Amino acid sequence: MAKKTLLVSTDCLQTMTDEECFGDKSPGEWLREIRKELGYTQQELSDILDYTRVNITLFESGQNPVPHTVK
Questions:
Q1: What is the pTM of this model?
Q2: pLDDT tens, position by position, 5-45
Q3: Cβ(31)–Cβ(66) below 8 Å
Q4: In angstroms, rounded to a whole number, what is the distance separating the alpha carbons of residues 29 and 62?
Q5: Taking CA 26 as the corner, what is the angle to CA 22 and CA 28, rounded to the nearest 5 degrees?
Q6: DSSP letters of 1-70?
Q7: What's the alpha-carbon Rg for the chain, to the nearest Å?
Q8: pLDDT band at 55 (very low <50, low <70, confident <90, very high)
Q9: What is the pLDDT of residue 51?
Q10: Residues 6+ apart with CB under 8 A from 17
């Protein structure tokens, strides 16, 4: 399993609003853009984050909220 990279501290994530995290995008749009910028498929991202591919699809579509651990 690949080591997970933390881009910001978890303390920071606990206090940030969604607007501060995602700007004018929805959390799902933000996640999709980041995933594509990194060149990952949904399956590859799910393997890295230890979520199912279906979870990634649900996060990106807005059907499930993006958890703090994914942010």
A1: 0.71
A2: 545 445 555 666 666 767 788 899 999 999 999 999 999 99
A3: yes
A4: 8
A5: 100
A6: -PPPPPSS-HHHHHH--HHHHHTTS-HHHHHHHHHHHHT--HHHHHHHHT--HHHHHHHHHTSSPPPTTT
A7: 12
A8: very high
A9: 95
A10: none
The two three-digit tokens of residue 71, written as one number: 């942010």
How far is the CA of 46 from the CAs of 19, 31, 57, 71, in angstroms?
A: 24, 12, 9, 13
Is the C-alpha dihedral spanning 64, 55, 29, 71 positive or negative?
Answer: positive
The residue type of 58 is L
Q: Which two tokens stand for residue 20?
A: 């501060």
Copy the structure tokens of residue 62.
């807005």
Nearest-5° Cα angle at 48, 15 to 14: 5
Q: In this structure, which amino acid lies at residue 40? A: Y
